[in-house]
Amino acid sequence: MQELEERIQSEGTVKEGDVLKVDAFLNHQCDVRLFDRMGAAWAEHFAGKKIDKILTIEASGIGIACVAAQHFGNVPVVFAKKAQSINLDGDQYVTSVYSFTKQKEFPVIVSKKYLNAGEHVLLIDDFLANGKALHGLIGLCREAGASVTGIGIAVEKGFQGGGDALRAEGYDVDSLAIVDAMDPATGEITFRH
Ligand code: 5GP
Asked: Which residues are annotated as a binding site?
């Protein structure tokens, strides 16, 4: 998606440790109109596929998924929680995921009420790096007996391999921008086309 690539080029910053910061429009301040066009792009890619629900993970995935859902017939959006809370009652699907940015394990939790056997689920997230977060969400779907129809990602860091591994496993991964290289010294960012 050319618009997203241009925003990454002009407003993104490359940090040490393979971290790309896009706080100006995606991860802190949110450009809702951009999210809307991202949703339209995923809807075009996944046109004709059955999607009953969108599953994402807190926090940055929520806004993107909620805006995108409007392009999928306003299907419900469920976000996996990253911490136990007294608000989470009843039975839950729980797995553990290693966070690339926080460099620690954290739980990923969805109430059994909101993920059901036979549902066709679209996974959406802001970033795809090594694929740990997505594998966590895929594991929860598998436990619930739901099937993963596809995966919509805003920014994939292709050089970290998570996206290509998921494609090799047979998942339909639609990343709107794929960064193949980035240099913290020069700030240069190279996209895959
Ligand atoms: P993975 O689990 O694929 O290794 O990493 C994906 C998760 O880590 C995403 O949910 C995202 O929140 C975070 N993440 C990974 N790399 C980056 C990055 O370069 N920038 C930002 N802002 N978040 C990232």
From this structure: 20, 27, 129-133, 157
Q: Which fold has domain 2-191?
A: Rossmann fold (3.40.50)
Given a cut of 90, whether residue 86 has pLDDT beyond it is no
* Cα 80 to Cα 57: distance, rounded to the nearest angstrom: 5
Cα(21) to centroid(ligand 1), Å: 10
pLDDT digits (tens, 9 = 90+) for 147-163: 999 999 999 999 999 99
Ligand 1 centroid to residue 18 C-alpha, Å? 10
Residue 85 has a pLDDT of: 74
Residue with CA nearest ligand 1 atom 16: 129
Euclidean distance between CA atoms 123 and 120, whole angstroms: 10
Please give the full DSSP string across 39-85, using - where no structure is assigned. HHHHHHHTTTS---EEEEETTHHHHHHHHHHGGGTS--EEEEBSS--
ipTM above 0.85, yes or no: yes
Q: Would you report the helix, strand and coil content of the chain in percent, each value rounded to 5?
A: 35, 35, 30
List ligand 1's pocket residues with C-beta within 6 A.
19-21, 27, 57, 60, 100-101, 125-133, 157, 162
Domain boundaries, the chain: 2-191
Residue closest by Cα to atom 20 of ligand 1: 20
